[in-house]
Design a protein that fits this description.
This protein starts with a helix and ends with a strand. The strands form five sheets. The protein has an eight-stranded parallel β-barrel. Strands 13-14-15-18 form a four-stranded antiparallel β-sheet. It has a two-stranded antiparallel sheet with strand order 3-4. α11 packs antiparallel against α12. The protein has 16 helices and 18 strands. The longest helix has 25 residues. By secondary structure, the chain is α/β, with parallel strands linked by helices.
Length: 477
């Protein structure tokens, strides 16, 4: 009997080992994930991925192949433009024309609709591939120490969303009880007739929206969200939703908005759009504003935003490129200077799909297009900026950003000069923000070489210095 008991114990242990081995084979241990930390945000570079236009194929697989290239550019956060299925009902073709109004059947097939007319928050558009393809993209990004945030459209849905039929109470209605597209405060249409406006006074909607957001965090390993027109959604929804999302896992939250209230405290959004700085840079490039306006803006930042608020700096994005023009059309000869400024000013810089490849055309918004894939002057510039942005604490731009100090010059209308410092490291940036050559003096001296050209101007206090139109210098001390 004793011998039989020993045999049974041995068999039991053997079976347990086999079971554990089988479990290990079928359920591999979850790989280590990149962490959402304050340290990561300090030197992070954000990349907006337009999957539809990133490659001729326009799918997840082709983008995933290039993730190591983005890592070489210092990208830490990949923002995926909406990946969800797009509504067919009221699908837009161009301008105010709907696909349904086009008589030619073959012509209709060209139009894929707006990324922001979502028909299923938990689904993936077959145009981009399968959910498994998306999972592979996320996994590859994580293996390259990058986060992936999903573009989320909380203000409205497409007209094919199941809520239209199953939960019409989730939507804004007119006096006739009809679901409406988004309206201005005076009741006039915003111009987004291809989507239906959501009503956040409905508690059921709030619960459903939070549940769909949580799905991507818990089931698909997404690391956060870029929230479309976040300022159009009631603040109290974000105050309810974001803490619940943060209880699920550490996340990064970007608001397509500039309202400081969306970033207040440590439970809401981490970063907002630098719309004001973007438009200011555009006006400076066009000669409508000057360095004095820049100085006023930088002072305003200190009064409007809290110290740990992060501003997203950009020269373009999907809206600016498709609707207003290329970087070259927008900034003219100041294009490279403004790209550099977006990296060296406080905040987090953005690269939009194609910028790294000298994108020189407006990408189509409702139909297929493609970016160039030839490395040119911008790939070289962004590679150079990556080196100093990711390695020098003086360019930290997150929740514990490096200081910003304006350096006076003899021509503060045209010459912008400032220093940034942190952890004993310092950079000094000097730029001519005008289309004419300018000579000036300043209270600064340096024997180091310009970071970009290697030139050693051997600057001395009150020494006359000249800069060509839109020229700039960067010194590391």
């Amino acid at each position: 009997m004793k011998k039989l008991s020993i045999i049974l114990i041995v068999l039991s242990l053997f079976t347990a080992c086999k079971t554990e081995q089988k479990k290990s084979e079928t359920q591999p241990e979850k790989e280590k994930m990149p962490l959402v930390t304050n340290s990561m945000m300090e030197s992070a570079i954000l990349y907006e991925a337009n999957i539809r236009q990133y490659s001729p194929e326009g799918n997840f697989k082709e983008f995933t192949k290039d993730i190591p290239v983005l890592k070489d550019l210092g990208v830490k956060i990949i923002w995926l433009m909406p990946v969800h299925p797009i509504s067919v009902t009221r699908r837009k073709a161009t301008g105010d024309v709907f696909v349904s109004e086009i008589k030619d059947i073959e012509e209709r097939k060209k139009y894929m609709g707006s990324y922001y007319a979502v028909s299923d928050y938990r689904g993936v558009s077959p145009d981009y591939g399968t959910k498994e393809d998306l999972r592979d993209l996320i996994k590859t990004a994580h293996q390259n120490d990058m986060l992936v945030i999903l573009d989320w459209v909380p203000n409205h849905t497409g007209w094919d969303h199941m809520w239209i039929k199953e939960h019409p109470e989730y939507y804004t209605k007119n006096k006739k009880g009809e679901i409406t597209d988004p309206l201005n405060e005076d009741g006039t249409p915003v111009g987004w007739q291809d989507v239906a406006d959501l009503d956040y006074t409905n508690e059921g909607l709030r619960k459903a929206m939070i549940a769909d957001l949580k799905y991507w965090l818990t089931d698909e390993d997404i690391d956060g969200f870029r929230c479309d027109v976040a300022g159009s959604v009631p603040l109290d929804f974000w105050q309810e939703a974001i803490p619940k999302l943060r209880d699920t896992k550490d996340i990064f939250m970007l608001a397509e908005a500039w309202e400081a209230g969306l970033l207040k405290g440590d439970k809401l959004f981490d970063m907002c759009y630098g719309w004001e700085s973007h438009f200011l840079m555009v006006d400076i490039a066009k000669g409508k504003k000057s360095v004095k306006d820049w100085d006023q803006y930088m002072k305003k930042l200190d009064t409007v935003y809290e110290k740990d608020d992060i501003i997203m700096n950009f020269t373009t994005n999907h809206d600016e490129n498709s609707w207003k023009g290329t970087v070259k059309e927008t900034f003219g000869d100041a294009d490279k200077l403004m790209a550099v400024l977006s990296y060296v000013m406080p905040g987090m810089p953005l690269i939009y799909s194609g910028q790294e490849y000298d994108l020189n055309h407006k990408l189509k918004f409702f139909e297929k297009d493609s970016i160039p894939k030839i490395k040119g002057k911008y790939f070289e510039l962004y590679s150079k900026l990556k080196e100093i942005k990711t390695k020098n604490p003086a360019l930290h731009g997150g929740k514990e950003a490096a200081s910003y100090h304006r350096i006076k010059t003899s021509d503060d209308k045209h010459i912008l000069a400032f220093s940034r410092e942190k952890k004993g490291k310092k950079i000094v940036f000097i730029a001519n923000l005008s289309n004419k050559p300018n000579s000036f003096t300043m209270d600064y001296e340096s024997k180091t070489a310009d970071y970009f050209t290697g030139r050693k101007p051997n600057l001395k206090k009150e020494q006359l210095l000249s800069l060509s139109p839109w020229d700039y210098l960067l010194f590391e001390n």
